[in-house]
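REQUEST ID: PR-0412
SUBMITTED BY: lab tech R.K.
PRIORITY: routine
TASK: structure prediction, single protein chain
INPUT:
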Amino acid sequence: MSFRDLRNFTEMMRALGYPRLISMENFHAPNFMLVAEVLLWLVKRYEPQTDIPPDVETEQDRVFFIKAVAQFMATKAHIKLNTKKLYQADGYAVKELLKVTSVLYSAMNTKGAERTDVSEEDSSKFKFDLGSKIADLKAARQLASEITSKGASLYDLLGKEVELREARTESIARPLEINEAEKMMKIAIDCVLEQVQKTKDMLNNVALDEANLEAKIEKRKLELERSQKRLQTLQSVRPAFMDEYEKIEEQLQKQYSSYLEKFRNLTYLEQLLDDHRRIEQEMFEEAANMLRLMQNRLKEEEQHLLKSGNNDDSDADSQEDEGSDSEVEEGQIMKQHTATEALVQGRTGTRIVGTMQGGDTEEEEESGDSEIDLDDDEDEEEEEDVEDDSMEISPGKSNHRAKKPEPLEESDNDF
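STATUS: complete
OUTPUT:
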């Protein structure tokens, strides 16, 4: 549907004198009642004497109404309408309605142009009835078509009249022979009798065929009864191998159940084995990580102890008397170094280290012992702090590494 078609349709209906105002918004949605009203008005305008039922309440009434209108337009006005588009009652139906309205509108315009040439007096006296004239026009068209067809058939018959006239005159002039007529009648009777005999033979053959078919049916029935009896006997008789088959079937069922149980247990055990392996792997990785952390921690503690030992050595040197011999000083330094090494190596195992150098006097030994004891006490406090920290990190695995070293006993005997 185009806007131009809808506009032309509304203008033509207004010019033809349709009593209702049609807007362009009426056909945006299906409106069958409006389409039926317009079709009925156009049919009445085309031929007032026509009789088309206006009932469009049910679906069948609507289909009958559309078919009646389309048939009327095809026979009377020679206008072909699409019934599907008319039944849609939307914009596509406007194109089909425009076919009828354009004919009426053009006829009205033609008549209006002719009336302009006539004077006003003649126009007042003459009244044009469009409905009656259209009916006469349709009747004239139908008569013209019939006259044309009849004339063509008459022309063909008149062309054959020369030959037919000679044959007709000969047949009329020839006298009727009784013998020949009797002979023709006998031939016709013989033909009829022959056809009757053929018909009787066919009937007899039908009877024979019927008897043959009945015999075959009886034979098939007997075979069916025998087959049914045989089937019943086979169903009632128990085979000899049936007992063995049932026993084997029971054994198979038991074997299958045991197989399912074993398969289920095997699957469960495999799952447990996988879980155990995974847990072991996790524990191994965790132990490796803890061992790596402990090694790093021990390295840091060892470096810290070495640094503190160097600082203690410098403090001890400053506190010694200026009058002490160099040998006594070297002995004290060696003893301090051995104590430090014992603290570092005590985490892997207890080791006793001594020196090859003895003390010169008792005073020197006592002073050296007092200084070593002070150093040992400080080292032991630092070592206890380190052990507490290591025990908090891994209390179960580092006991054998964090053993507290035993205090060194001073003795004059190195061995």
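NOTES: The mean pLDDT is 75.
REVIEWED BY: pending
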